[in-house]
Design brief:
This protein is mainly α. It has two domains: 43 residues, no CATH class; 115 residues, Up-down Bundle (AhpD-like), CATH 1.20.1290. The chain has nine helices and no strands. α1 packs parallel to α3, α4 packs antiparallel against α5 and α7 crosses α9. GO terms for molecular function: peroxiredoxin activity. InterPro entries: AhpD-like (IPR029032), AhpD_core (IPR004675), CMD-like (IPR003779), Uncharacterised_peroxidase-rel (IPR010195). Keywords: Oxidoreductase, Peroxidase. This is Alkylhydroperoxidase.
């Protein structure tokens, strides 16, 4: 059951309209999550700014894989549909890599280290060990990259929590529950 209605275009607050229109133009439609999130121009525009900035961090396969791992841990079915779709169509990840990412892994050793680290951040609420930090550094990530991984985890968690609270209607293809993959 949806707990927040997606706004019709004529009801979008003026302060959210430009940001929402840009997403709609880039994606080709207005996702229900964004149409609901736009009700708060402050939260919506802050998230959009963070998303835009973090789209320059790491590479798209790693970013989408982190999004899948974080969404799986946070139990966000809406985000799993979105990240599965973008991982397949934008990052060009094969189906088996999408499943691996949901489980917190990747075939590429460097990406695997980033995904495992992101998952540890969520599972420990940021209380990672020195060994966890060293493992991601040993894989070739700088402290700046590690800060970007932390920021990605926070950004994906924000949308996970938003979608878990408000449960917008899904508008991306459904994905299998984690138990069946």
């Amino acid at each position: 059951m949806t707990r927040a209605n997606a706004l019709k275009p004529e009801h979008v607050p003026a302060e959210s309209k430009q940001t929402l229109d840009a997403f709609t133009k880039n994606i080709g439609f207005t996702p229900n999550m964004m149409a609901a999130f736009a009700q708060s121009p402050i939260a919506f525009n802050a998230w959009a700014t963070l998303l835009g900035s973090l789209s320059k961090s790491l590479d798209v396969k790693t970013r989408d894989s982190i999004g899948l791992a974080v969404s799986e841990v946070n139990g966000c079915n809406y985000c799993l549909t979105v990240h599965s779709f973008t991982a397949e169509h934008m990052a060009k990840l094969p189906a088996e890599d999408i499943i691996l990412a949901r489980k917190g892994h990747a075939r590429d050793p460097k990406r695997d280290a980033a995904i495992q680290f992101a998952r540890k951040i969520i599972e420990t609420r940021g209380h990672v060990t020195d060994a966890d930090l060293q493992a991601v550094r040993d894989a070739g990530y700088t402290d700046a990259n590690i800060m970007e991984i932390v920021a990605l985890v926070a950004m994906y968690s924000l949308t996970n929590f938003f979608n878990n609270v408000f449960n917008p209607d899904k508008d991306f293809p459904a994905v299998a529950p984690a138990g069946s993959i």
